[in-house]
Amino acid sequence: MHELGIAIRIADIASRVAQREGVIHVTGINVQVGELTGIVPDLLRFSFKIAAKDTFLENSELIVHTIPAIATCPICELQFTPDGFLTICPGCDTTECSIIKGMELNVVSIAVVES
Fold first, then answer.
1. Contacts of 50 (CB under 8 A, 6+ apart)
2. For the chain, how many structural domains are there in total?
3. Phi/psi at 69 (nearest 5 deg)?
């Protein structure tokens, strides 16, 4: 379950940012997760609860926004939804396509209570 390692890293990022900004209470952390990352959002949220236990993040919510996969074709310039990592262009059948979205993992924002 690689979600636990990712959740620990998210908690570390949120903690460092909050401490740097003098925040004492984080209510939520918004993350973007590409659908091709292999990360299961429910497992990530569960893992975050474990990572945040006994820290000032313990009562914060991890909000996961899934980013759909998009591929693009260099031949016909079509953008399309790939079938997983299979990137055969539905327009011209080339296999030279690139995934341009769906591999992200970003901490987007941290919601806090202002003191």
1. 4, 7
2. 1
3. -75, 140
Q: Would you call 106 helix, strand, or coil by DSSP?
A: strand
Q: In what order do the strands lie in the sheet with 61-67?
A: 61-67, 26-34, 105-112
Residue 54's CATH number: 3.30.2320.80
Residue 26: what residue type? V
Cα separation of 82 and 70, whole Å? 6
pTM comes to 0.86
- Per-residue burial over 41-60, b if 16 or more Cβ lie within 10 Å, else e, is beebbbbbeebbeeeebeeb
Joined together, the tokens standing for residue 92 give 């011209």
pLDDT digits (tens, 9 = 90+) for 52-61: 999 989 999 9
